[in-house]
Amino acid sequence: MLLVLCVDLDDDLGRKTGFSTPVIGRDPVEEAAVALATADPEDSDVNVIFQGIHIYDDLDERDESVEVAVVTGNDEGDVKANREVGDEVDTVLASLSTAEDVTALVVTDGAQDESVIPIIRSRVPIDGVRRVVVRQAQNLESMYYTIKQVLNDPETRGTVLIPLGILLLIYPLALIGSVLDMPGIVLGTTSALLGFYLISRGLGLGDRLDEAVERGRRSLYAGRTTLLAYVVAAALFVLGGVSGMDTLEEVQQATADDIGAPVMLAAFAYGSIQWIAAAGLTTSLGQITDEYIAGRLEWRYLNAPFYVLSIAIVLHAVSAYFLNEVEINYLATALTVGTLLGIVSTLTFAVLESRFSDEESDHDTEGTRQTDRV
């Protein structure tokens, strides 16, 4: 028996139509092809499946023993996709009720899908490989359409457009290094704009920006406090950065000699930690509020504000010690208080969660017993 295997390595059939794979038999395969063609007429796997049906019909008219099936992988990567194709080939072979030796004819649409041939060969002998090429794609008149498809296809734009965009950015970056070369500034600016455009298209920044705006709009209309908390936290972070830089400048002006990197970090942390801690408290309390309103609040979520306070206490004490603002006794006390605050909050909320969970479990058990008695 000849098994005509149509390979869809990235599972366009399953993702776009919802068909469960493998698809075995002439009629089910035709239904799958029509469904995929309806969902995405431009998908090359449509031609692969119809080519498999054509081969099946041609051999069937010659009274040869033949079967057709579609096997798919997934879009997560070559190794996982190949393994999934191998598993589906095993399923197809197990479903064939024949005493004849089975060989396979593999139908693909390109070299990427043909990378799975060794996996198929390890399970069934392969008589041949048929690659389907759409004739119209070779014509010059389809060049604009092909380029447009590359720009819109998330599977190819990341591998094609991003390197091209980086290459276009090389010249402007070199131009910045020799900024006095004024005649080339126009060419460098143009090249930079093209590079940024291609990189943004390759990374799908426009789609991500639209998704972020949509999430923000839903959060605003849903009354989620995290949206307000994030805005306030961003402002607090900015204030913290400004305050940290001011403290660093004061330390540099007060010191005649050059200060080392540890002292610089300590000065920045000493001036900004209270603002950053306030931002952390704001975001954690906003998240806790939303979780409570949604009915998903768990006791361990309440640890977040205490952890923020613990970390802030420790960092403030360490930075103050490096700046000679406090004695070592204060540092030891702050480290102890910060550590104990985190440990006590963790144990407290763990005990509360365990106790309330046990009470709910006992209540559910008692309700079940009363129901059984009735």
From TrEMBL:
InterPro entries: DUF373 (IPR007254)
Domain of life: Archaea
Keywords for the protein's UniProt record, in alphabetical order: Membrane, Transmembrane, Transmembrane helix
Record keyword Kinase present: no
Pfam families: DUF373
Transmembrane segments: 158-176, 182-200, 221-239, 259-281, 301-322, 328-352
Protein name listed in UniProt: DUF373 family protein
Organism: Natronorubrum tibetense GA33
